[in-house]
Amino acid sequence: MGLVKMKELLKQASEQNRAAGAFSVGNLEMVKGAVKAAEEMNTPIILQIAEVRLPHSPLCFMGPMMVEAARNAKVDIAVHLDHGKTLAVLKQALDYGFTSVMMDGSTLPFEENIKKTLEAVSLAREYGATVEAELGLVGGSEDGSTDEGIRCTNPGDAKVFCEKTGVDALAVAIGNAHGNYPVAPRLAFDVLKAIDETTDIPLVLHGGTGITPEDFRKAAGLGIRKINIATASFDSLTKKAEAYLKSEGKHDYFGLNEAMVQGVYENVKRHIRIFNCAEPLSFS
Ligand code: 13P
């Protein structure tokens, strides 16, 4: 129990033919809510933060808090840097004890993405850490600040990319995008199946918010072993905080803290239920 390598957690998910939830956090309340849900569901999770979030949630505060929360948890938790862009930030995260990092070279030409990913793999190996990369282009961006469109991952390229980089997990683009979808997306399961058949590493689905429970489970049946959820947790936190502040009576930080924790806890628990594939589908 406690802090584990993401590779171990994904291996376990693979053996159980399910996906592990990777939940983005931005403050103390989000960390508490996610860990509480994981412990209650007795299910390992990944706690993650993306490089673009660091101006709001500096790594020097978030890093030690996330790692310490994982160390003290009653379930296995991996701590991950999401959408890393620079080796310097990857190194900082690894120095804080993160057990995995993502190098996101998805906007780069193929060969440059390979080169950048190889640098990340070489750095992470010094720490025994797991590396995720992205091939193809997931729509939008983690904080909604940019959108270069969606470019589906080419299965043949994915095979070459994995062989050349030795990466541990691959984020795929199959019609998924970050942020709230206007309508639930139609994921290209034929492409996912082809990628799964040509590669033999765990696949990652970004842009989890708004994907239907049925599609989550279908994706898990086709090699998706990690599913990223960010927007749904931020939204759930905000809704609970709003409701608390609009409720009757006096308000204080401590009540607000509990409301924020509760918002994230409820969202994370709801997704863990779906990802575990053990219960019939229900989305409430
Ligand atoms: P959402 O914000 O759409 O849940 O995406 C999260 C994500 O993919 C983080 O990398």
From TrEMBL:
It holds the Pfam family F_bP_aldolase. SUPFAM superfamilies: Aldolase (SSF51569). Keywords: Lyase. It comes from the Bacteria. InterPro entries: Aldolase_TIM, Class_II_FBP_aldolase, FBA_II. CDD domains: TBP_aldolase_IIB (cd00947). Its cofactor is Zn(2+). The lineage of its organism: Bacteria, Bacillati, Bacillota, Clostridia, Eubacteriales. This is Class II fructose-bisphosphate aldolase. GO terms for molecular function: fructose-bisphosphate aldolase activity. Its EC number is 4.1.2.13. The keyword Lyase applies.
